[in-house]
Write a structure and sequence with these properties.
With 142 residues, the protein is mainly alpha-helical. It folds into two domains: 3-69; 78-137, no CATH class. The protein has four helices and two strands, in the order αααββα. Strands 1-2 form a two-stranded antiparallel sheet. The longest helix has 38 residues, at 3-40.
Amino acid sequence: MDRDTRDKAAKKVRSIRRLYIHMSVFAIMGVFFFLLNIATDPYFMWYFFPLLPWGAIVALHYILVKGIPGTRILTKEWEEEEYEKQLERLGGDRFSYLEEEEDEFIPQKGKYLAYTELSDEEALELRRLQKHSAQNLGTDFV
């Protein structure tokens, strides 16, 4: 497993950890507000007023970290599938582009590979390999 994958996994674990801490603090404060409400004015239930907007924020935090519950919407896999669908819908063929000069691109048929998923050294090496392969095989390179 490469370092970039480990960094992404660690980042995801940290975001899930922060979500669980946020949910725990929300639950503890909900009990605190309820007990405070009972102790101060048991005839007027005000404890849920601060919990309503905070609960909406916790729900939004959950959706941003884990996606919409019961579906795969807003997850990383869903995003990648939608991206592939849009590529197919807009262009038919998938192309990856090699940058020879700033203004000139050479299209090459092949599977799309996001350079943002790679480290800088890996992306540079991949571009060099693709350029070398394109020069050796011509424009019909698959």
